[in-house]
Amino acid sequence: MRRGERTKTVSKKTSRTERVARTVRMGPEEAELVERLRKLRGLPTQQPVLRSSLARGLREEIAEEGVRLYRGGMTLAQAATAVGMALSELFAYCVANNVVLVQDPNFFSHMAALGRSLNLPALTAAAEELAREEQRIALPA
Amino acid sequence: MVHMQVRGGASPKTPAAMDTSFWTAACHAESEGYALKLFELHAPELVVEEIESEEPPRVRPKAVLFQQLREAGLISVTNATRSTLREDLFHRGERATLDLADERKWHALINEQKAHDYGRDILGLQTVSAPEMLVTVVFAGFLGKQEALHLLRKLSNITHAQLMQDATRLIERAP
Asked: What's the complex ipTM?
């Protein structure tokens, strides 16, 4: 913990959940945003704003760590498990943040093979034709 | 080779082992029905668990749909009799899917790059991602080109731009 941060555990008789209180110094810009949200929501105190912002922000930070692990070599399911997130939640984060999950530089040749395996000759023919066109473009004149 | 009668005939469907990643992506593209039409879907128990019991406990639409289809017998729960993949390779659901597809020589439905490529390049399986499935159903005569392009676009945020472009070009070449 850094200087300026305090931690104390608060147990309320009304709640079974043990809460942890921390004091964090905010910059003027952050403080202004908190106050603006409080006013916009018509809340008497800043506490609900801080609590929801923290929860949402932390979920996003966790998801970002999941994406980092995914990009580092894990599958998305492995990454979700590693950061303790539901796979569908991490998937949704990927959708929202344009994280590429599939690519295939040899798409046409793979689709031609898939067409053969499923007995779809039109698929194989179209994919092979496009693969040939790609090769012609790639080869020097 | 599995023979498929083109244009929506009543021939037996192609059996396929399905992973959570495929179900999630197919549902996102609202194309899970086409997967059911094209393939006889088999999900290993671990995949069923991943889809239906995901934490936090919350009723997710795609989980409910999966559960209903499974209970109606449209998705079978099938496990491989042996596990051949190293435990550090992929997530357990992905391993179970690849094991099942490898053992039965079925197609593997996976929308996860690493497991998809491993299945195809190392195990020699026919692996199918959600964009590949959408292209295929157009050529099988189950879906029109414009509808397929519309559904494909739903996957554009998680699909490489070049693959999106190639899939679009291929769909446009469909008869």
From this structure: 0.88
